[in-house]
Input
Amino acid sequence: MAEQLVPKDRIPWRHLALFGWLPSLLKVFAYRVLLGYRIGRGVRFSFGGIVVGKSVEIGDQVEIGFLAVVQGKTIKIGRYSSVGMMSYLSCEAIEMGEDAKIREQVYVGGPQLPESRFALGSRTIILQLTSINPTKPVIIGDDTGIGGHCLIFTHGAWLSALDGYPVNYEPVTLGKSVWLPWRVFVMPGSTIGDGTVIGANSLVSGAIPANSLAVGSPAKVIRSAPEFPRRLSENERAALVQTIMAEFDRYVRYSGVTVGEQGPFRAYRFGRKAWRLLWLRGAALGSVKRGDTVLTEAALPQEMLAQLRDEGVYWLDHGVRLVRDA
Output
């Protein structure tokens, strides 16, 4: 057999043998000292979970799962993000925003070019067994959800273009607040606008405008703005948030969490761990501490959000969404 012109191991066996077996604390130490990775606080690696790159930056509280592989020339993973068990990410440039979740057995890889790039926005999720090919850039906007068994390709080629068959290499862009349910196929060169929902088992080819509902193979728009999505009144939103919180409390109680009141806070306790939620409904922001969560239905100024972030306080700023949609 002829020798490969450009040899490349899909699995970085040497790196896995050197670092994969190390306990999380030792692995973080070795990555910082020996490889010069910039790693934040509270980062956790499961057994066999590795990150391989020339320039690596990992934010606070990131989790890399069991036998998960993340490799590329430049890797940047935002705080509170995670890569699930046995997922495989291989791309020239990998960028994950804050609180981005990649679940188990997700595959991101394929032939690489200098411009190959996988960019996943903040507060996003990719569910199990999804496959993404970032030979050309794949850009996924903030607050976007991708269901399981989805396929996103930036190239399609097998039969020879010299014989007249189509060969296509084009980037794919998904906007902000996009939802792909399970088993959606996205073809090379496709773009999906902000706030758009694609029906399950659909095939996307070309451009789908923002704020649309598209279904079918190929996917066609069946509803669009201003009818889709339906606008809710402030009273409807408030009632919906009330219902969501009641369902959340019911769920955590079923999971063994104790729910109570602690002054203006909702208090949650599981074993020795405790959390506090401050639900602001037009009230002023009181005294919060690191680890608390603030749920607000009124828009908070950017200065206050920056202060909460610096103090280690989480927030769900429903008020910003209200202002943005007005």
Summary: The longest helix spans residues 234-254.
